[in-house]
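Tokens for Methyltransferase. Go.
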Amino acid sequence: MDQRSHDVALGDPPRTRHELNADAPWDSFDPAAYVDHNYRLLRSDDEEILIAVRDHFSDHFRSASTASAGPRRGIDVGAGANLYPALAMLPWCDEITLLERSAANVQYLHAQRSDYDSNWNPFWDVLTKEGAYRDLAEDPRARFKRTVEIREGNLFDLDPDREQWSMGTMFFVAESMSTSYEEFRTGVERFLRALEPGAPYAAAFMEGSVGYEVGSHRFPACSVGETEVGEALTPLSEGKIVLRSIGMPDGPLRPGYEGMIVACGRRSSE
């Protein structure tokens, strides 16, 4: 996620000096520090997000219209050092692409692919409260290793004319890579266009974020709420988008945000 989108200042306040995605030190991102701070333990806000995503995907694939579908390919856009979006797609995918810009995060994902760390076990346990996960015929680590492909790449380079996926996730990416609302909207659009018509998706966003630190580096963000998230998702979604604002029952994860938002929907047929 390192390429500047076209006309990045469109729709933004004049004379604003943006911190753009292309300018952030992504290769210096510290995945060990990030995981230790964010995912060493399962927080109640992540658990609430997991439940919403788990139920959304389970309900979608339980329906008669999708029951006979062939092999499926999932994508987690901007996977970073977070495995739980990919785990949420595990029962339904023959392949899962983890798309990630940062070389440091790509290295982390490769190390996790063969045998992911035990801190991810409580996240999987939440998923197994639903039958599709609980009844998986394969050990989740073995299935993760078999299905996951790690791809170093740029969100803005996703091209629906070359490749599309059957389901997708994008967690804490579009609003957490730039101060530009235009880059935020473009990021959401590129994610949705990478999905096949009718594909289920789940996306999560930091609400009201003003930027964040990982290790010794600071990274940009733009402040979004349910209105901005809904407006970005609606043009390429069909049916109802379920938006849920997640509070901070365990206290803030870090300074400079107001909560989290999880969005579950389905890609439109245009």
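The radius of gyration is 17 Å.
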